[in-house]
């Protein structure tokens, strides 16, 4: 079955524009306006989505607010049951959804299928975790605090926040949407989803799987449109009780403008790979390829700078070069390793970083080559701190190597970054690895493996400009609730068996 056909036919208006989802129905924007989604490979319009107005956003917010009131009274086991159903439907329809990922974000075909399956698993795990942790509260007694008798019993429970605004990024429009939707729903919240333009059609297909699972009307809503028209309006909307955002530095602007509501932000990284003299260089090279070049480097957790000890740098660079030469470059449909980057402006930005490094004397391990949005993988050796690529995120298949003379120099470079998402260290000495991990100012350090967010139940968080709060299934559920307490006051102290 192809995207937009079969069970997905109702999300498409004729054969032209995909509809938005409001109050359990697929709708067209009243203005008749739409937004084009350009295929990164063909550079032609692939899909169109509705350009929703502020008026339409207001209506969506109203529906989300009223649906949440009823959902909060829906038994936890029933919420979990619906999530399990949605997960199964999502996995059943992995191919049409993967087709959208291939066409609108140029994700390699196999990785696109993996993203959908991983998302189904994430939703199921969330349902199970929610049943476990949301069914538990705390019971405290007053006489543990100085000066108190045992006259107060405090009962705590976890209650929903209300309406969660979820904004996923282009690189995982399905997986990083369900990582917000699942926790929000199991905790009793309703959802307004604003997909990225590239990735919107994949998101709409995913939302339809939740629709088919039979969630109540208005509980999940998905608006599409121009960020310039509805972006600030959504993030500053008084009806929003929590924002979960993954993306670039737009998140910093959102954080400054948002009201007094909980924020969960993941805003990118400049993940360093520190390589010590005793590292297994074949293992390092394999991880640099996986960590630096998967999905053409368009991952927040990609290795974005290699900090190699001078004594092993020559040998490491040779090993990485040999593996780069084996990468398959071309269209995502052919499941190539390196595919076109998401937009022409991204390709131009990457090229700017490459040209800056060239002017400043970096060693090019391969010839720089670009056709349209397709950029050939490039390893830049002898990068120095005065080059932009030493600090900025290319979000493309270009990886700098900085040679270091001490571990301290590597840690210093890592910690001088504005980002602090993940990092990795390669060494056979676990004691050194632990010391380096503790010294690195990042949310996670991987020892002897490339940075990665998954498995999806692991905590995932960034320091500094990399984000606010911690994700991962358990942490996201806990972030999307408030604690409510009821205190029973007794007329006289009561001691069990007393
Ligand atoms: O770029 C999004 C970030 O969350 C990366 O995820 O799974 O590729 O490590 P992952």
Automatic annotation (TrEMBL):
Q: Which PROSITE patterns match?
A: ALDEHYDE_DEHYDR_CYS, ALDEHYDE_DEHYDR_GLU
Subcellular location(s) of the protein: Cytoplasm
Q: Which reaction does it catalyse?
A: D-glyceraldehyde 3-phosphate + NADP(+) + H2O = (2R)-3-phosphoglycerate + NADPH + 2 H(+)
Give the EC number(s) listed in the UniProt record: 1.2.1.9
MF terms in GO:
glyceraldehyde-3-phosphate dehydrogenase (NADP+) (non-phosphorylating) activity; lactaldehyde dehydrogenase (NAD+) activity
Domain called Aldehyde dehydrogenase: residue spans: 26-485
Asked if the keyword Oxidoreductase belongs to this entry, the reply reads yes
A GO CC term assigned to this protein in UniProt: cytoplasm
Which Pfam families does this chain map to? Aldedh
Q: Which InterPro entries match?
A: Ald_DH/histidinol_DH (IPR016161), Ald_DH_C (IPR016163), Ald_DH_CS_CYS (IPR016160), Ald_DH_CS_GLU (IPR029510), Ald_DH_N (IPR016162), Aldehyde_DH_dom (IPR015590), ALDH-related_metabolic_enz (IPR051020)
Principal place where this protein is found? cytoplasm
UniProt superkingdom: Eukaryota
For this chain, the family text in UniProt reads: Belongs to the aldehyde dehydrogenase family.
Q: What is this protein called?
A: NADP-dependent glyceraldehyde-3-phosphate dehydrogenase
State the organism named in the record. Linum tenue
């Amino acid at each position: 079955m192809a995207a937009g056909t079969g069970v997905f036919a109702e999300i498409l208006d004729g054969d032209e524009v995909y509809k938005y989802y409001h109050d359990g129905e697929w709708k067209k924007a009243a203005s008749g306006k739409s937004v084009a989604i350009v295929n990164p490979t063909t550079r032609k319009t692939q899909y169109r989505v509705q350009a929703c107005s502020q008026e339409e956003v207001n209506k969506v917010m109203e529906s989300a607010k009223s649906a949440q009131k009823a959902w909060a009274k829906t038994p936890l086991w029933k919420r979990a049951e619906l999530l399990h159903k949605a997960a199964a439907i999502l996995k059943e329809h992995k191919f049409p959804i993967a087709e959208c990922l291939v066409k609108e974000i140029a994700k390699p075909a196999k990785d696109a299928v993996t993203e959908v399956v991983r998302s189904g698993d994430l939703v199921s795990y969330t349902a199970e975790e929610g049943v476990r942790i949301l069914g538990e509260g705390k019971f405290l007694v007053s006489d543990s605090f100085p000066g108190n008798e045992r006259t107060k019993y405090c009962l705590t429970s976890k209650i929903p926040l209300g309406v969660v605004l979820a904004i996923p990024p282009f690189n995982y429009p399905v997986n990083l949407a369900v990582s917000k939707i699942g926790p929000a729903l199991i905790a009793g919240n309703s959802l307004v989803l604003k997909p990225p333009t590239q990735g919107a059609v994949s998101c709409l297909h995913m939302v339809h799987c939740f629709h088919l699972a039979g969630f109540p009307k208005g509980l999940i809503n998905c608006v599409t449109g121009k960020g310039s028209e509805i972006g600030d309006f959504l993030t500053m909307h008084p009806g929003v009780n929590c924002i979960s955002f993954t993306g670039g530095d737009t998140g910093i602007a959102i954080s400054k403008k948002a009201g007094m509501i909980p924020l969960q932000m993941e805003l990118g990284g400049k993940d360093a790979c520190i390589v010590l003299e005793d590292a297994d260089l074949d293992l390092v090279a394999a991880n640099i390829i996986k960590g630096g070049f998967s999905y053409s480097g368009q991952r927040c957790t990609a290795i974005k700078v290699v900090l190699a000890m001078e004594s092993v740098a020559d040998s490491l660079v040779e090993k990485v070069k040999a593996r780069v030469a084996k990468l398959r470059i071309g269209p995502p449909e052919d499941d190539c390793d390196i595919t076109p980057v998401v937009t022409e402006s991204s390709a131009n930005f990457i090229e700017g970083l490459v040209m800056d490094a060239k002017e400043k004397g970096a060693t090019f391990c391969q010839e720089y080559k670009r056709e349209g949005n397709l950029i050939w993988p490039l390893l830049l050796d002898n990068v120095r701190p005065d080059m932009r690529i030493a600090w900025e995120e290319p979000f493309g298949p270009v990886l700098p190597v900085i040679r270091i003379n001490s571990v301290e120099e590597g840690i210093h470079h890592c910690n001088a970054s504005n980002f602090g998402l993940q990092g990795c260290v390669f060494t056979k000495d676990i004691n050194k690895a632990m010391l380096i991990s503790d010294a690195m100012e990042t949310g996670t350090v991987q020892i002897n493996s490339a940075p990665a967010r998954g498995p999806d139940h692991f905590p995932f968080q960034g320091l500094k400009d990399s984000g606010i709060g911690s994700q991962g299934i358990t942490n996201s559920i806990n972030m999307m609730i408030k604690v409510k307490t009821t205190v029973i006051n007794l007329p006289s102290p009561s001691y069990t068996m007393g």
